[in-house]
Every structure is written in structure tokens, then in C-alpha cells.
Amino acid sequence: MENKIKIGDFAKITGCTVKTIIYYHKIGLLQEPKRSSGGYRLYGSVELTSMKLIKYLKSLGFDLKKIKEVLGNAYESKTLKEALKSLRIELLKEGEKIQERVGKIDILLEEN
User: Fold this and answer.
1) What's the pTM value of the predicted model, to 2 decimals?
2) Is 68 exposed, middle or buried (CB count within 10 Å of its CB: 0-12, 13-18, 19+)?
3) How many angstroms separate the CA atoms of 23 and 18, rounded?
4) Which has the closest alpha carbon to 70: 46, 58, 93?
5) Which positions fall inside the HTH merR-type domain (predicted)?
6) Within the chain, what is the greatest distance between any pair of CA atoms?
7) Could you report the per-residue pLDDT of 30-52, keeping only the tens digit for each?
């Protein structure tokens, strides 16, 4: 049988606040775990894996809405792949815009 932990310990392990975890439950990003007979949320490996994926996708620049969409189709690996490709294209476009701005700044610096 898997060991289950309460929300405070889950927050410490994941590096999130309790408030963030509850918010993720509220918006449907993280599924509500089973509760103890005393009403405490009990987290296990499934919730831990989900939270790690949420944090990883956030670090890649996904917003919560997109993460929810990806997790909603978690069993379709092509959904994650498509989302990553889309994010890659967006980041490349942002990079081009930044390079253009840097170029304009360089021109101004050369003129002065």
C-alpha cells in the first residue's frame, strides 16, 4: 500500500504553497486527492507526478490554462508534443523580436 501524506507535507515536498495547491484544485488543474476519515486530503505518487509535470511545464513558459489543457489529455502523448512544438514556435518568434530590438539599440549606440 502506498504511503499518503497531508497537504502541508505535500507542499514542502513540491516546493509549492498550500494556497497554490488548493488553487490548483479549485481551477481543476490538480485533481482532488482522496480524503482521510478525518477529512484531510491525502496525496500520493499520482498527485506528486502531476505536480512535478505542472511545475515543469510552468518553467517552460506554459500558462495554467495551457497546462490544464495538456493534463486533460495526458494520455495522448501527441497533445504534449503538439503543445511543446507550439511553445517552441512562440519562443522563437519572441527571440526574433528581441533580436530586432537589440539591433535597433545597437544602431542607436553606433550613431552616438
Assistant:
1) 0.69
2) middle
3) 9
4) 58
5) 4-73
6) 73
7) 989 999 999 999 999 989 988 99
